[in-house]
Specification:
This protein is α/β, with parallel strands linked by helices and 458 residues long. It folds into 3 domains: 4-39; 68-274, Rossmann fold; 279-449, Ribosomal Protein S5, domain 2 (2-Layer Sandwich). Helix content is 25%, strand content 26%. The chain contains 10 helices and 21 strands. The chain has helices at residues 74-80, 100-113, 127-137, 152-162, 187-204, 225-229, 328-342, 367-379, 405-414, 441-449; strands at 4-10, 16-17, 33-39, 89-94, 118-122, 144-148, 166-170, 207-212, 232-238, 244-252, 260-266, 269-272, 291-298, 301-313, 321-324, 349-355, 387-389, 392-393, 399-400, 419-423, 434-438. The strands form 5 sheets. It has a 9-stranded mixed β-sheet with strand order 6-5-7-8-4-9-10-11-12, sandwiched between helices. It has a 4-stranded mixed β-sheet with strand order 13-14-16-15. It has a 3-stranded antiparallel β-sheet with strand order 2-1-3, with no helix packed on it. Residues 65-214 form the RecA family profile domain. It comes from Williamsia herbipolensis. A motif (RadA KNRFG motif) lies at residues 251-255. Residues 350-458 are annotated as: Lon-protease-like.
Length: 458
């Protein structure tokens, strides 16, 4: 018999080492290394075992067996691909209070309205507390079953008794596998619980949605293998100062992994927002200097947003640069390009640049809008409200092409914009909207800020 040997594993992150250490070298946790007895494997060849079912040709397998069923929430189905696939396991992670439970209660209610049974398992609240939230959001339906359990074996028993087609587990960190070592919510427990629920989904065809926590850095809490065990990983994001919520695909075996769904948190629940572009625009009756409109791509979804800029004189030797919703380093670079390439002097004034509605613009395609917004406030001449600006600005003052210009311009056209300033040579541009192709900032500023009777000298 092989002689057993000992290894050491971190209970927080699962890191293994050959000897005991006081601090885990992977996650930095103190006192989290435990001794684990393992058996030495004998070096021998493997023996072939007759399979229980023979392998079949791929052409003989019915693809409709894995067809997705819509949840009834269009924005959620958009991120999932087409809906929930039977036998799949979905991990929905997000910060506390962002609305994960509220969204999933709405999902099971829409699922029940289609004549299908659903089971909602909660390990964080009592059944009465979940019912109270369901009453407030209008998510009560007789085909929605509730179970307040944290023991994994009991949860499996509920699934066998109720026989649902959709099961929610809120949350995976609160479930306890009695036959597994480790503390509740630890790496070993989470891995055991997820493995058992994944096996249940594959063997019975029940679609399971796991609610997960996130770390302080915004990453999915638990071992990295958790994301490999499930079929779909979704991140539920939101700002506490805004009612807008985003469901973002991180991994998806059944569809695109870069889709985004938009929702709005209200007092009576969470509501989908099929057209979120209007949330990021400030509607006004007249043109105002210092504003520019751009179209950003969030995954595959084009969204129109507004950039605002303001300059103010200062006696300080180091003028302030305040940025909100944008990359501060890119904004600083654009200010340097404006002054160095087209002589827009901003070195002796304070500059404030922000987006509207809490929108985050991190891609380079918003560079041109930032440059035009700053140029507009310095020139004290407003850009027309019907104009959008799309493009990346280089250090030489050139306007570079970005991806998806055609889709961005088409979205601007759909929302009623009549003029688009884009990089020269952009392909697949739509018809029915005036398009000005520019090669550098000189041409972009003249196209946006100068009329036929007005000249712009730098």
């Amino acid at each position: 018999m092989a002689k057993p040997r000992s290894s050491y594993r971190c209970r927080s992150c699962g890191h293994q080492s050959a000897k005991w250490v006081g601090r885990c070298p992977e996650c930095g946790e103190w006192g989290s290394i435990d001794e684990v007895a393992t058996a030495a494997s004998a070096s021998r060849g493997s023996t072939a075992v007759a399979p229980s079912s023979p392998a079949r040709r791929i052409t003989e397998i019915d693809p409709t067996a894995a067809a997705a069923f819509p949840t009834g929430i269009g924005e959620l189905d958009r991120v999932l691909g087409a809906g929930v696939v039977p036998g799949s396991v979905v991990l929905l992670a997000g910060e506390p209070g962002v609305g994960k439970s509220t969204l999933l209660l709405e999902a099971v209610k829409r699922w029940a309205e289609q004549g299908k049974r659903s089971l909602y398992v909660t390990g964080e609240e009592s059944a009465a507390q979940v019912r109270l939230r369901a009453e407030r959001t209008g998510a009560v339906h007789p085909e929605v079953f509730l179970a307040a359990e944290s023991d994994l074996d009991t949860v499996l028993g509920h699934a066998e008794q109720v026989a649902p087609t959709l099961m929610i587990v809120d949350s995976v960190q609160t479930m306890v596998a009695s036959g597994s070592d480790g503390v509740n919510g630890g790496v070993t427990q989470i891995r055991s619980v997820t493995t058992a629920l994944t096996s249940l989904a594959k063997n019975t065809g029940i679609a399971i949605v796991l609610v997960g926590h996130v770390t302080k850095d915004g990453a999915v809490a638990g071992p990295r293998s958790l994301e490999h065990l499930v079929d779909v990983v979704l991140a539920f994001e939101g700002d506490k100062h805004s009612s807008l919520r985003m469901v973002r695909g991180i991994k998806n075996r059944f569809g695109a992994s870069d889709e985004v769904g938009c929702f709005e948190q209200r007092g009576d629940g969470i509501h989908e927002v099929p057209d979120p572009s209007g949330l990021f625009l400030h509607h006004r009756d007249s043109d105002v200097p210092g504003t520019a409109i751009t179209v950003a791509m969030d995954g595959k979804r084009p969204m129109v947003g507004e950039v605002q800029a303001l300059v103010a004189p200062t006696q300080n030797g180091s003028p302030r640069r305040a940025v909100s919703g944008l990359d501060s380093q890119r904004v600083a670079m654009i200010l340097a390009v404006l002054e160095g390439r087209i002589a827009v002097k901003v070195s002796d004034v304070e500059v404030y640049v922000a987006t509207v509605g809490g929108m985050k613009l991190t891609e380079p395609a918003a560079d041109l809008a930032v440059a035009l917004a700053v140029g507009s406030i310095v020139r004290k001449k407003a850009l027309p409200r019907s104009t959008v600006a799309i493009g990346e600005v280089g250090l030489a003052g050139e306007v570079r092409r970005v991806s998806g210009v055609g889709r961005r311009v088409a979205e601007a056209k759909r929302l009623g914009f009549r003029h688009a300033i884009v990089p020269a040579g952009s392909p697949d541009l739509p018809k029915g909207i005036k398009i000005t192709e520019v090669a550098d900032l000189h041409e972009a500023v003249r196209a946006a800020l100068v009329t036929s009777v007005d000249t712009y000298s730098f």
